[in-house]
Write a structure and sequence with these properties.
Structural class: mainly alpha
Shape: elongated
Strand order of the largest sheet: 1-3-2
Largest sheet: 3 strands, mixed
Order of helices and strands: EHHHHEEHHHHHHHHHHHHHHHHHHEEH
Helix content: 55-70%
Strand content: under 5%
Radius of gyration: 38 Å
Distance between the termini: 48 Å
Length: 483
């Protein structure tokens, strides 16, 4: 899947559309790198090639993959993109919402004290614009958030990012805090203090990730999720981080969430899970190679095929052996292989021993079928249709080998020997013939009455007319027999 894509309203051929509303209302307050990530990703969103990736954006802007994800988290909070932070992550660009254009007019005197204290927080920093004041006022009007609590959030953001922090980032933090149920000064301060206590732990995480950037509020939220919601210890997080240096915090988050879903919470459990996962992916690669197919990503192969086969009781060696047999018989797709495995499963064949016994039995049966084909005067390979007919003769009609071979000799020289043989055996079945002696006797009887009978449908019957009731009864009996 491409890393970036667009809503249909945004798709154009050969150029990227940038709304004036976006340029006027969002670019001025966005961090430079965040704006660059947004614009470059927008240009890549029309491409399905390999360049449409998080790695491309990071390389072109000389930043880390973690920085790219942080930028898209910023734009996601503003409802300009949708970030799905799976493995791999992907982003969908959204059209700007018209509803964001109009704010209710609010009397500034209501928040005079708040406004003065707000500007005082930016000591030696930028001046608050009327638009920014309106955003804060609107937020306070629409929620139960206390003005003092919002000032605490703003102070926290300034300490984290500096005096030039934009109001979009501040509002992102405020909404995240509110989602945790904190809206009063006391609860917000407690929540922010809790976030700040993770800084020492995050230093170790960043060190093992090889990340040199400053902490973001989203980093603290992520660490809070790993420890409080998922229940991982710091030791586990740090050890997993060592394997995520290329993917940064987003890759670390994806791995920890995967381990959590799999119930692997300790280092030993993660090690066992990883070893098993590596074996499964290696098996998927070997099976693909055995049947002559290639998938750049093995995730779908593992999820849709390998795991399902293993859950049915097949082991890796048996699956690989089946794949090799399928390749030799021109079954060279995963769907074709899956069909063979399902048939083997229905016959209780899930181990190499059972598979070898089954193949040996099929081989012996083919030898017998080949003998019958030769007795019919033919010299060719056994086909699937031959096997189906043989199964009918032996398993359903209960014909023994001597009777079948006797009938085969009678088919020599006919236009379609196998079809003729089938008609003879059908006659034997109808007449109750089970031995060669009975077959010979019936052949003699048929010769004596040949002049007064007509060969219809493969057996001798006298020509006569049937009533509708008789025919209806016949087909009713056949239906009951099939059931």
């Amino acid at each position: 899947m491409a890393f970036c894509n667009k809503e249909k309203q945004l798709i154009h051929d050969g150029y990227s559309v940038i709304s004036n509303k976006f340029l006027l209302n969002y670019i001025p307050d966005a961090p430079d790198k965040f704006a660059a990530v947004y614009l470059l990703g927008l240009a890549l969103a029309d491409s399905e090639g390999e360049d449409n990736s998080i790695e491309t954006i990071a390389k072109k802007l000389n930043i880390s993959a973690d920085d790219v994800i942080a930028a898209y988290q910023y734009w996601d909070e503003l409802d300009l993109v949708t970030l799905v932070n799976d493995a791999p992550a992907h982003v969908t660009y959204l059209a700007l919402k018209d509803s964001a254009s109009a704010l209710r007019k609010i009397n500034p005197s209501k928040y005079r004290t708040f406004s003065k204290r707000l500007q005082d927080l930016f000591i030696g920093g930028r001046q608050i614009t009327p638009q920014e004041y309106d955003v804060y006022y609107q937020f306070l009007e629409d929620t139960t958030f206390e003005p003092e609590a919002l000032l605490a959030v703003i102070k926290y953001c300034i300490a984290l990012k500096g005096n030039n922090i934009g109001y979009q980032y501040i509002m992102t933090v405020a909404r995240n805090v509110m989602r945790k149920g904190a809206t009063t000064l006391a609860t917000v301060a407690e929540h922010l203090d809790c976030q700040q206590k993770y800084d020492e732990d995050l230093k170790l995480v960043f060190k093992n990730l090889g990340t040199a950037r400053k902490f973001e509020h989203s980093d603290r939220l992520m660490y809070d999720k790993w420890t409080r919601e998922l229940g991982f210890t710091q030791d586990v997080i740090i050890n997993v981080a060592k394997d995520c240096k290329k993917g940064g915090m987003s890759m670390l988050d994806g791995k920890l969430c995967e381990y959590y879903r799999s119930g692997a919470m300790s280092l030993k459990e993660i090690e066992c899970y990883t070893e098993q996962k590596n074996r499964i992916y290696e098996l998927a690669k070997n099976i693909n190679k055995a049947i002559g197919v290639y998938y750049q990503s093995l995730d779908v192969v593992v999820d849709e095929y390998i795991v399902r086969w293993l859950n049915k009781g097949f082991d890796g060696e048996t699956l690989l052996q089946i794949a090799k047999y399928c390749f030799k018989t021109n079954i060279r797709t995963l769907n074709g292989l899956s069909s063979v495995i399902d048939k083997l499963y229905k016959n209780g064949i899930t181990t190499q021993q059972a598979l070898h016994e089954y193949i040996s039995a099929v081989s012996r049966q083919d030898e017998q079928i080949k003998k019958i084909i030769n007795k019919c005067g033919l010299d060719r390979r056994v086909t699937a249709n031959d096997r189906l007919l043989y199964k009918t003769w032996t398993a359903e009609w209960r014909m023994n080998a001597d009777v079948i071979e006797f009938a085969a000799e009678k088919a020599v020289g006919t236009n379609a020997p196998i079809a003729y043989l089938n008609r003879i055996l059908a006659e034997y079945k109808h007449s109750g013939v089970t031995t060669v002696e009975q077959a010979k006797a019936q052949s003699a009887a048929n010769k004596q009455t040949a002049a007064t009978k007509v060969l219809i449908g493969g057996r001798d019957i006298e020509r006569r007319q049937y009533t509708d009731d008789e025919l209806n009864a016949l087909f009713t009996v056949l239906t009951e027999t099939e059931d």
